[in-house]
Amino acid sequence: MAQLILNPGRERSVMRRHPWVFAGSVATLSGRARPGDTVEVVSDRGVVLGRAAFSPESQIRARMWTFDADTPIDHAFFKRRIAASVARRNAHPMLAGQDGVRLIHGESDGLPGVIADRYRDTMVLQLTSAGADRWRDAIVAGLLQATGCANIYERSDSEVRGLEGLGPVVGVLAGQAPDPDLAIEEHGVLLGVDAVAGHKTGFYLDQRENRRLTRDLAKGRSVLNCFCYTGGFSLQALAGGASEVLSIDSSGHALASARRNLERNPQLDASRATWLEADVFEALRKLRTEGRRFDLIILDPPKFAPSAAHAKRASRAYKDINLLGFRLLNPGGILMSYSCSGGIGQELFQSIIANAACDAERDAQIIHRLSAAPDHPIGLAFPEGEYLKGLVSHAA
Ligand code: SAH
């Protein structure tokens, strides 16, 4: 096995069990390794720190599979890690019995570059690193065995694969292709999952608990849901007894899926729902000029800042929509605001919301701090795993 020798002092991060070895930490590669090959990670003093997947094209030069010097990285390794990850989901009372669950959440589940989501009888796999890509067969075998679910569809079409020198890979890995009408039940509402062409692996599972809170807060309120995608928050708001729900997205395709989702749920009062295809930044200004006001506003925009380098421009965009959000709130209204940008930390996000409230001349208080659902854990050794933040503010 080739050895990746670190620069002096660079063993510290690995010893703290951080899974990434950056290019700048590496002194040399001793031996030969191709992308995805397993290498030993070794300190400058010759101490073997563990085993990692080599990725010569990426700034993240290696991702640790194990911090043990002797554990073989083979089919049995993936079988054990996958079984453990699935068992954690099955053991969690909020996850057991859910139709849609993230079974493997990459680094935080000890499987860097591996994402696996289950939607009823279909699993969707996304491999984002050279090491994960290399072990596709072992991962597929491990998933089939750990779940008893027979269908796996691959959605390795995330842009981040480019950083690892990998192109997109999509298609059936096991069993049947996903049912185009695949839908999961979440808190009593049916929501379609487009495993083949939808965002991520077809659905935003990370917002599951936050959609439940929306339902709980919506009773009797007029709701504005911005960046609604396929209407997850909108439908939960209707289920919770919202008096009206206006949902905005710039994608006509997403709105068509949202309407289809509403049809899937005849128990909901469809006459209370309005869908608007528009740019949210413009639509919020227009609503303001029209004198419209709402009791509950949801802002769940796409990732404005994929990395810290984009933080400044992204901050302006978050500030803009949140300022408009506060201005459109009735007295006693609630703003549910999210950021899924890894480049915007919790503290920065809170200060953006505070500035927005201040500029809108609204006194507001945080009533909930939200994050991703428990099937999207954050490894304590891997703070980079924390991406989704939500603040729920009550405005006087
Ligand atoms: N809240 C959704 C997920 C939002 S994904 C859920 O819970 O399922 C982000 C959405 O924002 C996408 O549907 C995308 O089409 C939309 N979008 C991106 N930029 C936009 C803009 N400027 N105006 C309106 N919608 C936008």
In CATH, the architecture of the largest domain is 3-Layer(aba) Sandwich
Number of separate strands: 20
CATH superfamily (homologous) name of the largest domain: Vaccinia Virus protein VP39
Low-confidence runs of at least 5 consecutive residues: none
Please tell me the overall pLDDT: 97
Q: Percent range for helical residues? A: 25-40%
Domain unit count: 3
Main sheet summary: 7 strands, mixed
**What global shape is seen?**
globular
What is the radius of gyration computed over CA atoms, rounded to a whole number of angstroms? 22 Å
Query: What portion of residues belong to β-strands?
Result: 25-35%
Task: Describe the structure concisely for a colleague.
This protein is an alpha/beta fold and 396 residues long. Helix content is 28%, strand content 29%. The chain has three domains: 3-66, Archaeosine Trna-guanine Transglycosylase, Chain: A, domain 4 (Roll), CATH 2.30.130; 75-174, RNA methyltransferase domain (HRMD) like (Transcription Regulator spoIIAA), CATH 3.30.750.80; 204-395, Rossmann fold (3-Layer(aba) Sandwich).
